[in-house]
Amino acid sequence: MIRERIDVICKIGGSLSRPETLRPLLKTLEAMCSDHHVLVVPGGGPFADSVRKEAATSRLGETASHWMAILAMDQYGYLLADLGEATRLVRTSTEINEAVRDKALPVLLPSTLLLAEDPLPHSWDVTSDTIAAYIAVRVEAKLLVLLKDVDGVLTDDPREQPSAMLIPYLSLTGLARYACVDVAFVKEAARLRRCWILNGQHPERLVTLLRSGKTVGTEIETARAAEQDISNIRDVIS
């Protein structure tokens, strides 16, 4: 059981897997631990890309590919922890609690938790985005932030359309029309409290979000958040 309240889970995408990007991002996250309880969930990065290539070459089954991809997240977690200065690798609830109490930045190696519970379909429809959402719900985190190499959800692929514009707010139904998260994410994200997609190359935007509740990025309206808004309106009316 997670005894320490988790304020924000930050999933660090594989698209950010360059030392010159990760070091300042991790430094910002470490500094945040003095005021907030943070948990990092690693993406798959180049390690997951290797799994995809091997899965195609060897025609691997979905179960083998699923667990190999989760182990790729562990590998990326080791990379993140080594690039940080006040990080701590964690696998269990007890280790998360201890890291949070010590104001270290916990980097989750998710294979231990997922092997014990096996909660998600064995499919490439499930990637680290959905896994991060599952973990955020499980630990009752206040906020899930998906850190990617773009400003949020854009109207088009900026590599093909430089004029693509940022979409500041999306419902889960709207999110499903864009290829910025995996197929399974929308279903899992419905149970989240709050969710944002931010550019991890600008870690100051995450700081602004935690201070003010708004920043440059895309806020995803979850079903749970919508229910809370309705409840708040009813309270005002009554």
Question: Can you characterise this structure?
Answer:
It contains 10 helices and 10 strands. Helix 2 runs antiparallel to helix 3. The chain has helices spanning 19-32, 45-58, 62-83, 93-101, 111-117, 128-138, 172-175, 185-189, 204-212, 223-237; strands spanning 8-12, 38-42, 87-90, 105-108, 143-148, 153-154, 166-167, 169-171, 195-199, 218-221. The protein has a single domain (8-237), classed as 3-Layer(aba) Sandwich (Carbamate kinase), CATH 3.40.1160. The strands form 3 sheets. It has a 6-stranded mixed β-sheet. Strands 3-4 form a two-stranded parallel sheet. A two-stranded antiparallel ribbon has the order 6-7. Helices cover 46% and strands 17% of the residues. Helix 4 links the parallel strand 3 (87-90) and strand 4. It has 238 residues and is an alpha/beta fold.
